[in-house]
Amino acid sequence: MSAEALAAPILILGAPRSGTTWLAKIIDSHPDVLYRHEPDKLVPSPSHLTADDVPGLVARWAADRSPRSASKLPFFRKSWQPVWAPGVKTVVAAVVGVAGRLPAPLNGLSRVPIPDFATRPPPRFAFKSISWAGGAAIFAHALPDSRTIFILRHPCGHVASMIRGHREQRFDLTEQGSNMPFNEKAALRFSGGFGIAEAAFHALPDASKYAWNWRAFNEPVYAAVASEPNVHVVLYEALCAEPAALSRRLLNFAGLDWNRQTEAFVARSTSYRGASGYYAILRDAVASAEAWRTTMLPEDQAAVRSVVSASPLARFWPDLMNAASGAADHPLGDTAHSVSHRPT
Question: Does a structural domain hold residue 339?
């Protein structure tokens, strides 16, 4: 990876179940991009991150070819690879994935690094994180040529997806003694700042706890980075409603040109009409964004609204805005399908 690419990385950031993987694959579909999927899971950032730490950390993430980081499908044709590379990488990733389910010592193959097959240094580097909220502002300041795309999803959509995933046992519990698949301590600290005692938090319905977790992740990130010139905020629902137009705008913000490969992927990933798995990126985009309105229990919707109606982020979605707010105060424009580089 060249020094120029490491000085101008692209970070795709958002809470889990907010469309981060789909958005990251839109960026990855560009022929000039080298993409790493959640490299901070295996190469964590320092607990006390400083601006001086960021360049070296980004270089380590770019160099991470572990299966988790480097094998997220689909693979795309790249300007810096031979034309056969995506097909061979797909086979290698499949073999490594199967190896993880084999008995020892064969399962050792599941840790084999995934080759990039680069014939020259990739011009751009992009990575995704669903946990690096605390480092986003430091990242933006330390690397002024970097670009961060922060995606926000309607809290009811986010909570509905989290409830489904928890019900289907798709998550590992993040804390011992907790039955919630998120950082419950962080949610407790955040809600405590609004007068919610620990006992009262534990007595809340699960949908309310998920809503506090949504606020605990998104509000501090938005407050820290949204006004930065190298940060772009996008709504998941907006991207689903206008995928081609907003994808073009996002690539332009990241310094990438619009190309046929990205155009084709955006069209394919938003117009799928078959059954979609929980982690699938091929979907009917509009139906996916609005599904919670008919699948989420009314009492769970009410519980989420009771928590987020006072959030400064509620103004992004007109149905969450309380009576004291007006459409003219909406920071992203006249509709919930707007987007801004620097919301006010």
Answer: no
φ, ψ of residue 203 in degrees (nearest 5) = -85, -10
Q: Are the C-beta atoms of 253 and 147 separated by less than 8 Å?
A: yes
pTM above 0.85, yes or no: yes
Q: Give me 28's structure tokens.
A: 């990855």
Q: Report helix, strand or coil for 102.
A: coil
Is residue 183 included in any domain, yes or no? no
Phi/psi of residue 159, each to 5°? Answer: -65, -40
What total of structural domains would you count in the chain?
A: 1
Q: 148 has which bridge partners?
A: 11, 231
Share of the chain above pLDDT 90, in %: 73
Angstrom distances, CA of residue 311 to CA of 159, 212, 215, 275, 308 = 15, 10, 7, 34, 5
Domain range spanning residue 127?
Answer: 3-81+116-155+217-329
Does residue 52 sit within a domain? yes
Note whether residue 308 is domain-resident: yes
Question: What's the pLDDT score for residue 334?
Answer: 32
Q: Do residues 242 and 172 lie in contact, with contact meaning Cβ atoms separated by under 8 Å?
A: no
Tokens of 23: 């958005």
Query: Which pLDDT tens digit goes with each residue over 45-104?
Result: 998 999 999 999 999 999 999 999 999 999 999 999 999 999 999 999 999 888 888 888
Can you give the CATH number for the domain in which 286 is found? 3.40.50.300
